[in-house]
Amino acid sequence: MPRRKRLDPSIFHLPVEKMQAGYYTDKYFVRAREVLLADGHRPRVLMQVFCKSHAFLGGLDEAIAILKLCSHSWEDLTVHALYDGDETDPWETVMTIEGPYDAFAHLETLYVGVLARRTRVGTNTRLVVEAAKPKDVMFFPARHDHWLVQTGDGYAAHIAGAIGVSTDAQASWWGSEGIGTVPHAIIAAYGGNTALAAQKFADAMPEDVKLISLVDFENDSVRTSLEVARALGPRLYGVRLDTSATLVDKSICKGMGDFDPRGVNPQLVRNVRQALDAEGFRDVKIVVSGGFTVEKIRAFEDAKVPVDSYGVGSSLFRDQGKYDFTADVVMKDGKPCAKVGRWYRPNERLELVE
Q: Do 189 and 42 reside in the same domain of the chain?
């Protein structure tokens, strides 16, 4: 039995006709298929797909959907693959495609592309999640890339362990919805009064929405956190510290000397925690965001900074490793046929795709 159910191909809303026509494919693959068809040559090949880096896989269900819906004869193909979220070693085969080459020659650009993109996001997210354990990580990079990538990236982050994503599109593939906080813009709309904006937010939102308020609008996170906590009482789930990396919060100014005082730093978090606890708001969570990377999260955790969860954004899209995928024909008509330096690498972990 399969280890788990794969996503249904229909969930990806693929532009099937354009993909079949080679519209999104490197032209040389399209022309290669045309040559085979013109010559009536239909070799049965085994295509092997791998990544040269250690990674946590993403995009496999999407790649399989491309093959199922956009090949010219899925019934003639035999596909074996790992699963989204699987950990893979360098050079390990993650998928094989066996069948007439002309049936899927036009799809290589597409399936290796989605594997590269989703694996990069998934691996970066997994590294952040592992650094933050047992704290939660919220996936907040939607504003740092094109809106069209949101759905697959959100799913890759979800599989990697992120507890929340910021848009409904990012959460759509597993039937959830986005989460978020009281933003700076609505605070500005209420004249910079964070407590008032948070109260209006609470009045309008259902009780099951966890209310988390940004508290750095006036660069006085301790005072603002207390004002919001007093105004909302038990309705307040948490406060979010998001001080700019070019600013020093007012609560830090009297204690500078042996640390970098800018942005969200350990002392700022401790100041807010101590102030909330002193007034009895021990249940109010502290979320931090703004420039958090794997390294910064590890530093916070090593220092036992009283953070409850991390909001991580643009660093999840950066190249912290090379997650390019390669597809090679390694067998032709049942016999080895690979370019020099490549050979068939069978993998017992692969499972037949039905």
A: no
> Is there a contact between 178 and 165 (Cβ–Cβ < 8 Å)?
yes
Distance CA 78, CA 97 (A): 6
Same domain, 230 and 246: yes
Asked if residue 222 lies in contact with residue 271, where contact means CB atoms within 8 angstroms, the answer is yes
CATH number at residue 32: 3.20.140.10
Tell me the backbone φ, ψ of residue 108, rounded to 5 degrees. -60, -45
Between 150-160 and 108-132, two packed helices, what is the crossing angle to 10 degrees? Answer: 40
User: What CA dihedral angle connects 165, 166, 171 and 177, to 10 degrees?
Assistant: 110
What is the C-alpha to C-alpha distance for residues 206 and 32, in angstroms, rounded to an integer?
A: 57
The whole-angstrom separation of Cα 77 and Cα 99 is 5
pLDDT (tens digit, 9 = 90+) per residue, 196-243?
Answer: 999 999 999 999 899 999 999 999 999 999 999 999 999 999 999 999
CA angle 166, 169, 173 (to 5 degrees): 110
DSSP at 4: S
Looking at the fold, whether 157 and 95 belong to one and the same domain comes out as no
Structure pTM? 0.89
**What is the domain-level CATH number for residue 270?**
3.20.20.70
Asked if 287 and 216 touch (Cβ cutoff 8 Å), the reply is no
Same domain, 306 and 172: yes
Nearest to 283 by CA among 333, 324, 353, 232: 232
Summarize pLDDT for 235-285 with one digit per residue, the tens.
Answer: 999 999 999 999 999 999 887 778 899 999 999 999 999 999 999 999 999
Q: Tell me if 194 sits within 8 A of 227, measured CB to CB.
A: yes
